[in-house]
């Protein structure tokens, strides 16, 4: 059985897959401690030998996590590394090592799932858009703050934007009429910013490729923008799909 880890800036997404790549167990951990406690519980029912992971955390934090996986759980660990070219996709960054590895995994996965040009959108702590041409050339992309960051910037840089954050997610899918309370005005405003960002990526993709492209959407806040992407392919495990391609486990 293989443990797969996607270490984002806010959460560590994890899952355990079986021999035929079926998902046996999965979860979202807020900290390394929470992750290890879940994996130690899982060990009671599953034989865990291999682990592959992708991390956008600091080199130190990533190395520390790798070491704990090896020492505490006795795992063989493979960590995704940057590359100028992976599985037919050519990294478009001037310095390929500075492209976020989650973006790279998502792009590799999109390429695997589609033979067309692709627009890849990931709505996590940050929101990212990446463009890949049909020949596998990664064209680069865009980064902007994600929903939680947009909200928290308003809270931390204003004196009077204060409201119950527990209710925040309730606003996401509601009709976006003008807000008549601080909570509504901020929540709807931030969701509209993301929808606008996503629409502008689609416009750019259309300018490049007409209608001959696929849009892939992933990340914790993906539901906030689905309605502005008519033909979108929502793939919550897009990063894990790319990770399996970048880090195959020899059998
Ligand atoms: N059940 C959930 N638990 C945590 N965050 C969630 C959940 N559902 C949606 N979210 C949203 O997902 C975002 C995190 O998305 P994620 O893709 O995990 O980010 P990252 O990869 O940067 O850690 C949070 O900012 C939050 O707004
Ligand atoms: C853009 C990101 C912060 C997104 O991270 P996430 O929201 O998934 O936690 C991450 O891909 C990253 O640190 N990238 C390095 C900078 C770059 O891609 O140019
Ligand atoms: K992201």
TrEMBL record:
KW Chaperone (keyword) present: no
Cofactor(s) required for function per UniProt: K(+); NH4(+)
Binding site for substrate: 93, 100-103, 182
ATP-binding as UniProt keyword: yes
Cofactor binding description: A monovalent cation. Ammonium or potassium.
Molecular function terms from GO: ATP binding; metal ion binding; pantothenate kinase activity
Primary subcellular site in the record, as a coarse category: cytoplasm
Family designation: Belongs to the type III pantothenate kinase family.
Protein name: Type III pantothenate kinase
